[in-house]
Amino acid sequence: MLGRALRVALMFVATFAGVAHAGEQPSAAAPEAAAGAPAHVALVYLALSVKRSFPESYLDQPPADEGLAGAAVALADDNTTGRFTGQDFTLDPVSAPDEAGVIAAFHDRLQKGARDFVTDVPASLLLKLADLPEARDATLIDAADSDDMLRAEGCRRDVLHVMPSRAMLADSLMQYLVVKNWRRIMLLAGQSDADKLYADAIRRSAKKFQIKIVADKPWTFNPAEQRADTGHFEVNTEVANITQGVDYDLLVVADEEDNFGDDLGYRATLARPVAGTQGLTPTAWSRVYDETGATQLQNRFLRAAHRWMTERDYGAWMAVRAFGEAAIRTHSSDPAVIGAYLRSSKFELAAFKGERLSFRAWDGQLRQPVLLADPRSLVSISPQPGFLHEFFETDTLGVDQPESTCHLN
Amino acid sequence: MPPQLKCGLAALSLLLLAAGTARADHLYISNEKDNTVTVVDATSLAIVKTVPVGARPRGLLLAADHKSLYVCTSDADHIEVLDLASLAVTRTLQSGPDPETFALSPDGKTLYVSNEDDNQVSIVDIASGRISDEIPTGVEPEGMVVSPDGKTIVNTSETTSMAHFIDATSHKMLASVLVGSRPRFAAYTKDGGQVWVSSEVGGNVSVIDSATHKVIHTIAFAIPGVPAETVQAVGINLSPDGKWAFVALGPANRVAVVDTASYAVKKYLLVGQRVWHMDFSFDGKTLYTANGVSNDMSVIDVGEMKVTKSVPVGHLPWGVVYGP
Q1: Which residues of B make CB contacts under 8 Å with A?
Q2: Between chains, do A84 and B164 touch, taking CB under 8 Å as contact?
Q3: What's the distance, CA A186 to chain centroid?
Q4: Chain A residues inside the 8 Å CB shell of B201
Q5: Where residue A227 falls among pLDDT bands split at 50, 70, 90?
Q6: Among A12, A213, A389, B159, which has the highest number of CB atoms less than 10 A from its own CB?
Q7: Most A-contacting residue of B140, B156, B159 (CB-CB within 10 A), to test interface
Q8: Disruptive mutation site among A73, A77, A79, A80 for chain B (greatest number of B CBs within 10 Å)
Q9: Can you tell me the distance from the alpha carbon of B189 to that of B145, in angstroms, rounded to the nearest whole number?
Q10: pLDDT digit string (tens) for B27-37?
């Protein structure tokens, strides 16, 4: 236990060091550049530097600069283009270890004139920021949250979301199950709030695509027990017990914090594959993805950050590129012009998914294909062929306009 | 005419025909996944040879003297010279990292290479096989073309979404024109008056006036029953008479035929899957397309505007060039 605590502490220091270093960059909240000089577009990257819950596997430590490293690559992309359009982009990275600190930093940057924000904060904090009266004419691109509530009753006019919602992730997986004709699943959900939301999304999506959940069980086994030297015996027995007496095609797991999902494969009573938050995973980005030019972004990121790009890095990359694209297309640094363009039907983001991505007008969600990948290969990309839509096939993923409970107006 | 003479003339013409057949032209297809170039007889459409080349062959160009073919072997980080008489790689040229597409100066002496991974264009002197200069450009440079007078180079950069006009002598950037998302290919009209730029993610073609560097028209494509997202414009070939532009639409599996005067789309021709690059026969009567996913080449009768044949080639065909 001491070892673990120490590691967490070290990670925390590393996060802090990263922020301090980033803070050395010139302030981005400078006023508008004078005419003649390159038009200045100042972006603020606002993050809550939480102690990320420790993954069960020691193999994939969350990098200290996760998210910010993706934003940095996108900023370089924006500036390369800006060189030709006479625009100059800066990113002011701010993070605080608690909600009050993030809100104070947000206030401070708003007061200094910043209006274009990329956020990496939990849903509850995002709402607190978005609901501040001073934030009324700001645009917050949420680069990290997949919360369905933020696209429904929690939607806000000043907030856009680039990550696929949990509903989109679940629909991507269910469409694939329909294509494979794997109609019976067992659902195993962890105990965190995030796990419960993920499991809810799976339940709703299964119903929508007529996939039968033949067993729906909570995972309550204490993850600490498997750390003991013979822990794998106990995990093996536990998984065999919980999956006993049920027949299903696929074991779907809801474990967003990587506490037990990787421990299910090969241990269940029946030889069935695992999908969901582990195994075959619906995701916005994966290091196995190299189609439609993605190799270029993977390489560019690898060179800049000396590690693989994660989904969180990709979210931040999309958010900074979205601001850049809107500023470049409108040839403006006026946050009002940029914000309006982002929400318009003219906006399109090329994000290595083989098609143009745009924001859904009804809930601010970026419509996009979703990858289905396991740790070593790309399995498929949803929407699956045959799932048709009147306007955008990607709108077969997640909550479509007629069902939306977001009332932006 | 005496019957004997008639007979003699017929025999002579047959002989001439036979001679023509013996010197049949060929098609060269780069197979991105196989690391080969497939050589196809243009008359019989039979595969003559599959030539092993360096890793990930993509862009292809015929040398000015028609004696060799330049091949961008992207993962090998150089350009290979395929001798067309022996069908063997005889030389390699420097290219800078990850060469994908390139263009040849009208005098045949210089190659302009886009280095997709390095945000630059490399200028390669063919005689020495060395890079003589590098020009910084946008993010992920891709399409390359040289103006008919050789004075201007146009490079497209995919993530920057621009067509960059570069002076071929001073290597200075003349203008950067914003086009649709992910521009893949640029083609000059024969008179040099316009540059046509295809955008893969934007799904359209921007027609740029070469003198003013302004987009004067944007051509959109809509195919009944085909989702708009799959319409991804890539290769553009203007017919030798200048009347038609053929635009490859990638995963829409179609080639659009565009009237260059009115910019109206006259027809969509169904070809193989994920069509990217194309080339005309020397007489301009036939167009050939490389279809990446169906691993074949489609043959289009230009006069009839009909697809007449499909020829299986290697894996992931990227480009095709018509040559001797």
Answers
A1: 116-117, 119, 138-140, 157-162, 164, 173, 176, 178, 181-182, 201-203, 227, 229-230, 232, 251
A2: yes
A3: 25
A4: 348, 350, 354-356
A5: low
A6: B159
A7: B159
A8: A80
A9: 11
A10: 999 999 999 99
For the residues A396-401, what does the mean pLDDT come to? 96
Q: Is the pLDDT of residue A17 over 60?
A: no
Neighbours of B167 (CB within 10 A): 13
Asked if the Cβ–Cβ distance from A393 to B181 is below 8 Å, we say no
Reported ipTM: the value is: 0.83
In DSSP terms, B291 is beta-bridged to B275, B296
| Domains delineated in chain A | 4-164+286-382 (3.40.50.2300), 167-281 (3.40.50.2300)
Cβ pair A84:B138 closer than 8 A: yes
pTM assigned to the model? 0.87
Backbone φ and ψ for B18, nearest 5 degrees, come out as -60, -40
Tokens standing for residue A106: 């947000």
Cβ within 8 Å, pair A81-B139: yes
pLDDT at B118: 85
- Residues in A closer than 8 angstroms to B119, CB to CB, are 80
DSSP per-residue codes, A232-261:
HHHHHHHHHHHTTT---SEEEEE-TT-SSG
The pLDDT tens digits for B243-281 are 999 999 999 999 999 999 999 999 999 999 999 999 999
pLDDT in tens, A236-262: 999 999 999 999 999 999 999 888 999
Query: Which one of A296, A350, A393 has the shortest CB-CB distance to B181?
Result: A350
- Average pLDDT in the A196-216 region? 98
Pick from A222-226, A300-304, A329-333: least confident: A222-226
Torsion of Cα atoms, A330 then A333 then A336 then A337, to 10°: -10
- Output the six-digit token pair for B2: 């005496």
Q: Does any CB of chain B come closer than 8 Å to the CB of residue A356?
A: yes
Q: Is the pLDDT of residue A79 over 90?
A: yes
Structure token digits, residue B215: 């987009």
Could you give the count of Cα atoms lying within 13 Å of A164 in the half-sphere of its Cβ? 28
A346 touches chain B (CB under 8 A): no
Contact (CB<8Å) A355/B119: no
- Which one-letter amino acid corresponds to residue B28? Y
Using the beta-carbon criterion (under 8 Å), do A293 and B164 form an inter-chain contact? no
Cβ of A78: how many Cβ atoms within 10 Å? 28
Nearest CA in chain B to A329: B178
- CA-based radius of gyration for chain B: 20
Tokens encoding A342: 């982002």
Q: Do A355 and B201 touch (CB under 8 A)?
A: yes
Q: Which residues neighbour B154 within 8 Å (Cβ) at sequence distance 6 or greater?
A: B143, B144, B145, B146, B147, B163, B164, B165, B166, B186, B188, B195, B197
> Is A386 in CB contact (< 8 Å) with chain B?
no
In the predicted model, is pLDDT for residue A5 greater than 70?
Answer: no
So what's the pLDDT on residue B10? 52
CA distances to A161, A173, B280, B302, B318 from B238, rounded to whole Å, are: 42, 43, 9, 11, 19
